[in-house]
Amino acid sequence: MTFKELGIAEPILKALVQEGYENPTPIQEKSIPILLKGKDLLGVAQTGTGKTAAFGIPILHHLYTNNSGIGKRKIKALVVTPTRELAIQIGESFTAYARFTGIKNTVIFGGVKQAKQTDELRKGVEILVATPGRLLDLMNQGFISLRDLEHVVLDEADQMLDMGFIHDVKKIIAKLPEKRQSLFFSATMPKTIVELSRKMLGDFEQVTIKPEQATAEKVEQAVYFVPKGDKAKLLVHLIETKSAKAVLVFSRTKHGANKIVKLLGKANINAAAIHGNKSQTARQNALNDFKDGKLTALVATDIAARGIDIDDLSLVVNYDLPNVPETYVHRIGRTGRADASGVALSFCDAEERAYLKDIQKLIKQTIPTITDHPFLDDGSRPVDAQEDDRPPRANNRPRNGNQKPRNSNNRNRNKNRNRNSTKKQE
Ligand code: AMP
Hints:
Blueprint: H1 10-19, H2 26-36, E1 40-44, H3 51-65, E2 77-80, H4 84-97, E3 105-108, H5 115-123, E4 127-130, H6 132-140, E5 151-154, H7 157-162, H8 166-174, E6 181-186, H9 191-200, E7 204-208, H10 211-218, E8 219-225, H11 231-241, E9 247-250, H12 254-266, E10 271-274, H13 280-291, E11 297-300, H14 302-305, E12 315-318, H15 325-332, E13 342-348, H16 353-363, H17 408-413
Helix pairs in contact: 2-3, 3-4, 6-8, 15-16
This protein binds adenosine monophosphate (AMP).
Residues 21, 24-25, 28, 47-53, 309, 337-339 line the site of adenosine monophosphate.
């Protein structure tokens, strides 16, 4: 199946060729025909599957073929997405796919002054990409009218829930015109999200791209058993021995992310952190520097990194294993996007073995273990953790048995070495 066979308008096809898209990804092949018919869609899929084009292309096709070209531009399509980074990225995709159509988009998000955004809105756009808080704010101030809206996309719905946006999202849905095409995307479908989808969607069709399909087929994975206090050294060792150029490192916490950046800096590895405590400018600069190859490593928390699309990502490192198994799938989805293959390495300390078990259950595979490295945790060494450093427990899961605090020898051994700390939650 080709994009041409799907019946996409010529200027959009031309842009896709420029983007280097030869064939639709599975989610595109399944979703585009449904959306071209004007039906609602429930897409159960993670980022990295080509989700943005799956909704972006048919929306642009409708707007292009129905465009009268007369009068001021009106907002005809709205995409609501949880993070600023994701919003910017979706805006960039629309700009790329629409470059020969004359259709304009703009992106609005919180954490920055609103004047630039309202100027763009005044000039007029057909497509608005927004995070929920700023969207509601500007709607309430009268800068945004959704009266002419024809298409609405709720992206990463489960993440909206995790970030506490669910009430804002419900308020936004309540303000949408009755007659519209609704698209709802979520990587997971907990009960609250199913309920929300029923509120938003009319007569819909469902497309599911299973995470295990996305990960198992494309991403080479491995796990290193390593004491917590040796994780930084292992990271430096891997970056150096693998001559890795673009490494995305996941930290469970903001504080932990900052510490990892410092430790990498000491080893002369250029790195920056992105997380919720960083200003929007700092986050965007770090992301741009990473994309431009000025940074070897970008250290991110899950929320800040969600959906971030980086070409040529050579390696994803799970410095901490996530306590929610689906998060692992999101993380490793950052590498091996679309057709590319990728590598994801995970560090697992004694406390995290239960998390590893849950992850392997979800992805239905045993992640190969690498034992030929200098910092191997063979289970005989004391657990290198302090009480307040412990990762949060998921679902009251019992902790791993081996919970002794570090002994004094161990402490001396590691004296003057920075260790990661995971005190605060994102
Ligand atoms: P997304 O899941 O929308 O974040 O897309 C993941 C990545 O796949 C992005 O870098 C897209 O540019 C790329 N992509 C999307 N669709 C295709 C396609 N049909 N062929 C090649 N790359 C694609």
